[in-house]
């Protein structure tokens, strides 16, 4: 009798588990919406658990699965998402009717002490309030002020290259592992512009800042699964997205910086200073419901690192790779750089940088071919009807929208011969003809 009960319970549990795994894969069929399933349910969960997902490859497969369809359903990591690949429909959802899709997907705990207050993850009114406060911080004039800090980091990487070349001492071209090199450069730029710290990672590649930064991206799959699928368990066991050292180090550094500047009246042209000024301005001239606390400053500064460290270093590496295999493009860009160095007496100023058209073309084409994010997402926050040809698709609150950036960037319909690296796509003649929703390396 005992084993019979055990057997029945085992069957029930297996049945429940099976339904849990497969139920999202019938979501679109039940909705009467065309769909594409990249994997069967168990392959999908296996790739998720074993961390063997190739998002670059899978995003392209999903995009190209139905060439004649503007919209269809997909399932990624057991989450149904509506993939919208038509530029005009994307414009409607992401811009025209943006108020229905203000939020992004989010696996964070609501009480996460660092991340939940930042502009990219906060939702609804909190997002609106934060954006209202921070928008004046990110003006072109403010970026011009910060440019000098970035230029100093540029001097450090040039000094590193020169030193390594002299050390090699054989007159041959210098071989550089670019990903680690650009990571050090990016680390220094973010440290000085966002945290107010002057760090030379070329002289000290294992400094505490860069080591802690690496810990941000040292994801534990178990931790991720708990937050993603079992948030109630994550809360019980106090599981957070990142390692404890991250939550200790970055807030401590920023709080010390804020305290030091206030006590000693120190001003420095960086993001910390701009946000401190925004906070002081709000305190002197209060606006109803708008508040900027030190925790908000910590959250924004931290996300600059989290969002910029890996993406910028990878983007720089891809650009350098394309220049290396296209020497004719490299030569033309080098000539433009030399010309502007002469104009600036050996320095590149913010104003000179704005006028470097070929550099802009090269960077734009690199972002097209290798976008930092292969897809964007939005979460519907109020019921919406999307008219697609003769079909009405009802998008319910919390439904996920997938914007396939990589697929669009590699679509020959918008970019002929898309695998070719061709900066001329972005020259003065061709650039105006590019549909805004077919070029979204930084979102929409």
TrEMBL record:
<dbReference type="GO" id="GO:0005506">
    <property type="term" value="F:iron ion binding"/>
</dbReference>
<keyword id="KW-0349">Heme</keyword>
<keyword id="KW-0408">Iron</keyword>
<keyword id="KW-0472">Membrane</keyword>
<dbReference type="GO" id="GO:0005789">
    <property type="term" value="C:endoplasmic reticulum membrane"/>
</dbReference>
<protein>
    <submittedName>
        <fullName>Cytochrome P450 CYP9GP2</fullName>
    </submittedName>
</protein>
<dbReference type="Pfam" id="PF00067">
    <property type="entry name" value="p450"/>
</dbReference>
<keyword id="KW-0256">Endoplasmic reticulum</keyword>
<dbReference type="InterPro" id="IPR036396">
    <property type="entry name" value="Cyt_P450_sf"/>
</dbReference>
<comment type="similarity">
    <text>Belongs to the cytochrome P450 family.</text>
</comment>
<keyword id="KW-0560">Oxidoreductase</keyword>
<keyword id="KW-0492">Microsome</keyword>
<dbReference type="GO" id="GO:0016705">
    <property type="term" value="F:oxidoreductase activity, acting on paired donors, with incorporation or reduction of molecular oxygen"/>
</dbReference>
<dbReference type="GO" id="GO:0004497">
    <property type="term" value="F:monooxygenase activity"/>
</dbReference>
<dbReference type="GO" id="GO:0020037">
    <property type="term" value="F:heme binding"/>
</dbReference>
<dbReference type="InterPro" id="IPR002401">
    <property type="entry name" value="Cyt_P450_E_grp-I"/>
</dbReference>
<keyword id="KW-0503">Monooxygenase</keyword>
<dbReference type="InterPro" id="IPR050476">
    <property type="entry name" value="Insect_CytP450_Detox"/>
</dbReference>
<dbReference type="InterPro" id="IPR001128">
    <property type="entry name" value="Cyt_P450"/>
</dbReference>
<keyword id="KW-0479">Metal-binding</keyword>
């Amino acid at each position: 009798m005992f084993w019979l009960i055990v057997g029945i319970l085992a069957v029930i549990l297996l049945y429940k588990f099976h339904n849990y795994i497969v139920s999202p894969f019938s979501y679109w069929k039940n909705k009467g919406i065309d769909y594409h399933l990249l994997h069967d349910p168990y392959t999908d969960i296996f790739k998720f658990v074993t961390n063997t997902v190739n998002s670059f490859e899978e995003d392209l497969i999903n995009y190209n699965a139905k060439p004649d369809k503007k919209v269809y359903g997909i399932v990624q990591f057991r989450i149904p998402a509506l993939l919208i690949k038509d530029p005009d429909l994307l414009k409607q959802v992401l811009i025209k009717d943006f108020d229905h899709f203000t939020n992004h997907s989010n696996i964070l705990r609501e009480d996460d002490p660092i991340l939940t207050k930042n502009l990219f993850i906060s939702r609804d009114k909190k997002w609106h309030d934060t954006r209202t406060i921070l928008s004046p911080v990110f003006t072109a004039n403010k970026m011009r002020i910060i440019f000098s800090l970035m230029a100093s980091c540029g001097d450090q990487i040039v000094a590193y290259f020169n030193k390594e070349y002299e050390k090699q001492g054989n007159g041959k071209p210098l071989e550089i592992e670019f990903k680690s090199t650009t990571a050090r450069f990016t680390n220094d730029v973010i440290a000085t512009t966002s945290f107010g710290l002057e760090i030379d990672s070329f002289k000290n590649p294992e400094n505490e800042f860069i080591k802690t930064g690496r810990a941000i991206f040292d994801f534990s799959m178990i931790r991720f699964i708990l937050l993603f699928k079992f948030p109630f368990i994550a809360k019980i066991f106090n599981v957070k997205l990142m390692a404890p050292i991250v939550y200790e180090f970055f807030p401590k550094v920023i709080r010390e910086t804020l305290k030091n500047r206030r006590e000693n009246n120190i001003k420095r042209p960086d993001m910390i200073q701009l946000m401190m000024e925004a906070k002081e301005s709000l305190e002197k001239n209060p606006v109803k419901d708008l508040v900027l606390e030190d925790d908000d400053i910590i959250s924004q500064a931290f996300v600059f690192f989290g969002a910029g460290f890996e993406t910028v270093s990878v983007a720089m590496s891809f650009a350098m790779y394309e220049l290396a295999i296209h020497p004719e493009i490299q030569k033309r860009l080098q000539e433009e750089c030399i010309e502007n160095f002469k104009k600036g007496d050996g320095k590149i100023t913010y104003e000179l940088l704005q006028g470097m058209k070929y550099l802009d073309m090269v960077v734009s084409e690199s972002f097209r071919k290798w976008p930092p994010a292969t897809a964007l997402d939005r979460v519907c926050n109020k019921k919406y009807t999307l008219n697609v040809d003769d079909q009405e698709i009802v998008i319910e609150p919390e439904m996920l929208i997938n914007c396939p950036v990589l697929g669009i960037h590699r679509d020959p319909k918008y970019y002929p011969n898309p695998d070719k690296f061709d900066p001329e796509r972005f020259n003065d003649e061709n650039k105006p003809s590019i549909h805004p929703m077919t070029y979204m390396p930084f979102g929409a």
